[in-house]
Amino acid sequence: MYNAKRRVLCLLLAMLLTLPFAGCSSGAGGGEKESETVGAESAENTETETETETEAVISDDLPESDFEGYTYMIYNANPESNDWFTTVFVTMEEDSGDAVPSAIFQRNVSVEDRLNIQIEESYQTGAQIKNAIVAADGNFDMSLMQGADTLALSRNGFLLDLYSLPYQNFDKPLWDSNAASQLSLCGRLFMGVGDFLTTPIDETICTFFNKNIVDDHQLEDPYALVRDGKWTIDKLGEMGLSACQDVNGDGVYDDNDDYGLLSWRGVLYCYLIYGSGNTITQKNAEDVPEFAFNAEPFIGAFEKVVSICHANGDTFLYDAEMKNNTKGLSNNHRVQEIMFPGNQSLFWVECISWSKALRDMEANFGILPCAKYDESQAQYYNYNNGNFFGISVPATVSDQNRTSIILEALNSMSINTVRAAYYDTMLKTKYSRDEDSADMVDIIFDTQVYDCSVVFGIGNAKTNLYTMASKNNADIASFYQKQSGTLSKNIEKLVADYAKLGE
Fold first, then answer.
1. Mean pLDDT for the stretch of residues 117-140
2. What is the C-alpha separation between 271 and 207, in angstroms, rounded?
3. Both 470 and 325 in a single domain?
4. Strand 317-319 vs strand 205-210: parallel, antiparallel, or unpaired?
5. CA-CA to 294 of 20 to 30 Å: which in 134, 178, 411, 429?
6. Rounded CA gap, 237 and 471, in Å?
7. pLDDT number for residue 372
8. Distance of alpha carbon 90 from alpha carbon 232, whole angstroms
C-alpha cells in the first residue's frame, strides 16, 4: 500500500502523461522545448504577474496496462561505493527532498502506480549478470553495464536487441538517438542511452577554466571565443602557455607548480582529437565499425594535439596519469581535485560531473566545450568518455511486451523528473557559476560524440593511441601498419559473432 502523499503525487504525474503530445522536450536526443507562460492575479486588488515555464510532455504511446504487482528487477553493475558518477542508483526508499534523489523517487512512484508494479534494484557485477542469464532464471528485466561487459554478453546471445522490442521508440527524445546510431553494431542495438540514467551525462568531457587566472593574465574571454567560433586547440595552447610558472623556482615541474592544462591521458588526447571532428572508428553502410585513425584528418589532428600538449616539455600539461604526486595521495587522479581549485591550472579537461566537486571552489570557474581544430571547422564536437552504464535487456526475460512497456515508461517519465532535476537544476544552475556556463553546457550536449570502439573497447585502439600521445609520439602511420591486422581481425570476429545470432 502506498501512503497518501505518494498517491497524490502519482495522480498528478499520471495526469501529465495523459495530456496530448505538446511538442518536443530537451531529452537525451536534444529536441527543442516548447513552453507556456501563464499569468497569475492575486485575489486582493493587487495584480502580480508570474511566469511559469511548463515543461513539454512527451507521449510514450503505451497501452494501458496492469501488471498485477509484478516486481521489475534491475541489475546494476555499478558498485554503490563508486563516487565517479553523480547518480549511480535507480531506486529510492523515500523522497529525501534533494533534487535528483527526489526526482528518482517521483519517477519510480509514478511508473509503479501507472502500471501496478514494484521497481527493485540489485547491485551485481558483470560476471554475476552473465551467470544469471546463463542460468536462465528470468529474475531480472534490465541490466546496467558498461560497454565491455555489454559487448561480451551481446555477442554470445545473452542480450536482446533493443530494436526488436515492441515499444522502444528511438525517434523520440526520451532516447539519445545519436548514441543509438553510434552504438549499434551490424544493425542491432544492445546498449541504450536514455533519460532513465544520468551517467551518460556524467561521462561527457568538458573544459573547466579558472576565471581568476584569465583576469590576472588579461587573457581573452573564453566564452566570447566559443560564441565567435574562435575557441580552437591553438588558442587553448596559446592561453595555457601564458599561465605556466615554476612557482618554487626549483627547475622541476611537479604538482607544486602552475600549468596551462591539467588532465590525464585517459581522456585528454581523445577529447581534443574528437573535438576536431574525428573518431577512431566510423560506421560503413552495413553498420560495421571501421578504424579511421589512419585517415589524413585524424593524423593531422593527432599531430597538432600532441605538439601543443608537449609544448615546452612538461611545463604546459600536468598529466595526472604520468606523474607521481607529492601530496601524499594514493590515487594520482585525485591530485586534480586539489590543483585546479588551488589555482594551479588555467584549464582542466575532465568529466562534466566533476563540476559538483567545484561548488566550494573559492576562485570563479567556467565551463567550455572542447576546442575546435581551427576556425574553419563548422561546429564544436564533444567527446563522451564511454565509461557510463547503459541500458540492456537480458535474453531471458519472461515477457518481452511487459519488459518493453515498463522500460519505455521509465524513460518517458524521466524527462521531466530525473533529467530535468540533474541537467537543468543541478548541472546548469547549482554546479554552474554563471549563465554563460549554462549556455556552454547546452552547446556541449548538442554536439556530443560517441565512438563504439571507445565505449565497447574494440581493439584497444584508444588505449594504445593515448599511450603514444603521452610519450610525445605522433607516428600514427607506423602504429597503424603494425596494428591493422589485429584490429581488422577484432572487427571480423565481432561481425561473425553477430551473424551467428541470426542463425
1. 89
2. 10
3. yes
4. unpaired
5. 178
6. 18
7. 97
8. 38
Q: How confident is the model at residue 81 (pLDDT cuts 50, 70, 90)?
A: low
Residues 143 and 210 in one domain: no
Per the domain annotation, does 273 fall within a domain? yes
Question: Alpha-carbon distance 130 to 394, whole Å?
Answer: 9
What's the whole-model pTM score? 0.85
| SS3 of residue 485 by DSSP | helix
Which residue in the block uniquely carries the three cell numbers 547503459? 390
Query: Who contacts 145 (Cβ-Cβ below 8 Å, separation ≥6)?
Result: 77, 126, 129, 153, 191, 389, 390, 392
Residue 71 or 57, more confident: 71
Residue 485 CB contacts under 8 Å (≥ 6 apart), including other chains: none
Q: Which residues of 176-196 are buried (b: 16+ CB within 10 A; e: fewer)?
A: bbbbbebbbbbebbbbbbbbb
The answer to whether position 338 is within a domain reads yes
Q: Please, which pLDDT band fits residue 459 given cuts at 50, 70 and 90?
A: confident
Q: How far apart are CA 158 and CA 138, in angstroms?
A: 12
* 188 half-sphere exposure, CB direction, 13 A CA radius: 20
Contact 375, 232 (CB under 8 A): yes
CA distance 51 to 156: 54
> Are residues 375 and 317 part of one domain?
yes
Q: Quick one: 235 and 303 in the same domain?
A: yes
Examine the domain organization and report whether 144 and 214 are in the same domain. no
Question: In whole angstroms, how far apart are CA 337 and each of 31, 224, 245, 262?
Answer: 34, 27, 19, 10
Measure the N-to-C terminal CA separation of the chain; round to a whole number of Å. Answer: 47
d(CA 20, CA 317): 53
Are 450 and 386 within 8 A, CB to CB?
Answer: yes
CATH number at residue 288: 3.40.190.10
**What pairing do the DSSP bridges indicate for beta strands 365-368 and 70-76?**
unpaired
Helix axes 296-309, 476-501, angle to 10 degrees: 120
Residues 6+ apart with CB under 8 A from 346: 209, 210, 213, 214, 217, 219, 239, 240, 242, 243, 259, 260, 261
Q: Which residues of 40-78 are buried (b: 16+ CB within 10 A; e: fewer)?
A: eeeeeeeeeeeeeeebbbbebebeebebeebebbbbbbb
Task: State the Cα–Cα distance between residues 206 and 272, nearest whole angstrom.
Answer: 10
- Looking at residue 51, its pLDDT comes to 35
| pLDDT band with cut points at 50, 70 and 90 for residue 83 | low
